[in-house]
Amino acid sequence: MRYGFFGEAGGLLSAVKKFHRETPLSVSKQEIALEEIGDALWYLAAFTRRIGVGLDKVGEMALLHLQKRLGISKVERFGKGIRFSQIDGLIAFQIDHMTDDFGKLLYELAESTSGLFENFSAASEELSSDANVELYAKLLELLALVAASNGLKMTSVSTANLQKIESRWRRDDAPYGPYFDEDDLEHEQLPRELEIEFIERTVNGRLFVVQRWRGVNIGDPLTDNRLEQDDYRFHDVFHLAYVAHLGWSPVIRGLLKLKRKSRSTVDENEDGARAMIIEEGIATWIFNHARDKGEFFKDVKEGKLEYALLKQVQSMVAGYEVDNCPLWQWERAILDGFQVFRLLRKDRCGIVKVNMHDHTITYVPQKAQS
């Protein structure tokens, strides 16, 4: 946890540096601060749970620190039940009188963070000492001030971080959302149960994959489109995984001729060429990443897929209906898709079954055809 907080504080410093050096177009300084401070706050809350003190005591001490820093002569003692809104309100009331600039606050945060490692002994950690509580209060105070310097409130930071956690890691009782085409005409809905046959064939020395649905070939025969063969020709399994876990795939809609023509706006924007290109781009980008990192996510367990990868995917689908899906659904779609891909890659053919009701994608072996 110490390493984690140190990393988040360092990430904030590094992000500010990169922002000034590169001025990224896709993210604002405030967005950077929102995420980095939120993650640091998560670790700080974890510290308080670990030492059995509770965030209220740390919050009360942080409020006392803030009163002193802001020059409030009458120091008020607070009872139990400290809220982030109290910290936000105190800073907002005195923010015009603050003399510390953003740079100085970052220096203080870096210095105080190093205190997590002073006199540290792995054999005997006096986690619940008064010195540690004092340090955690100082860190909370500085996080709140850095947030305010970026026009943020700790209430917003904490809420955003909780939403991020719920999106990334599924709660046991978290439901899937309704189907995107639930209210559309039946003949424009994705099949709730679907079987696609994948067959690899060799013609004139070239390998390609054909797909059949209900005994009819769909789409064009696929090759790897790459000098060094990597079996990308089986990649439509990823689109089927998106159907299973996200209820979304403009590519599969196109292949099965299930575009929502009765709603022209949806047909043009959600099921149109741009949406299909984005989906293909996501599948290709993740495939290259999985191939180059080794074994196509073979040993990656649920909950362990890189957050940066999932966040990038989410940014790519921003503005489309699938943007409503949490990151844990994307993770399931990606990992299950690659599990089936690895089996297809091994057997060179097979049947892929999708069940949208159960949110599953499974593989059934089939005898190879010449």
From TrEMBL:
<dbReference type="InterPro" id="IPR041407">
    <property type="entry name" value="MazG_C"/>
</dbReference>
<protein>
    <recommendedName>
        <fullName>MazG C-terminal domain-containing protein</fullName>
    </recommendedName>
</protein>
<dbReference type="Pfam" id="PF18722">
    <property type="entry name" value="MazG_C"/>
</dbReference>
<feature type="domain" description="MazG C-terminal">
    <location>
        <begin position="178"/>
        <end position="366"/>
    </location>
</feature>
